[in-house]
Write a structure and sequence with these properties.
about 120 residues; mainly alpha; 3 domains; 4 helices; about 0% strand
């Protein structure tokens, strides 16, 4: 082995040894593992039925939960993005449409004003 590899292995093993001796970290990892087990057990015990009233098997439950998670994630992402846009003062597409509509209205008003002005000028002559 090269010296670099030996030094890396020594560093990794000493880090792992230090982590294994950290009682607080081990307790925290154990808590997380227990919470994860509880959630998995709760998910497996949960009875889910389809439209026909048949109980879903494990893989179908997972598929349903994945769809729900995807929808939740999409909602959270859109909320986050919209709040980010509002914080950054970026104009949304809706606002751009409103601005364009207002521009078109002002353009019409300007053309009407021009025609009125032209009409008034003709009357004065």
């Amino acid at each position: 082995m090269k010296t670099k590899s030996i030094v890396e292995l020594a560093a990794i093993s000493s880090t792992l040894y230090t982590l294994s001796k950290d009682k607080e970290l081990r307790e925290k990892l154990a808590q997380w593992a227990e919470k994860g087990k509880d959630k998995v057990n709760e998910f497996v015990k949960d009875k889910m039925v389809d439209e026909e009233g048949k109980e879903l098997d494990f893989m179908e439950k997972i598929a349903v939960k994945m769809e729900e998670s995807a929808k939740e994630m999409e909602d959270k992402i859109s909320e986050t993005v919209s709040s980010l846009y509002s914080k950054m003062n970026i104009t949304h597409t809706d606002e751009l449409a409103k601005i364009k509509e207002r521009y078109d209205d002002m353009k019409k008003e300007l053309s009407l004003t021009k025609s009125r002005l032209t009409k008034l000028e003709k009357k004065e002559q």
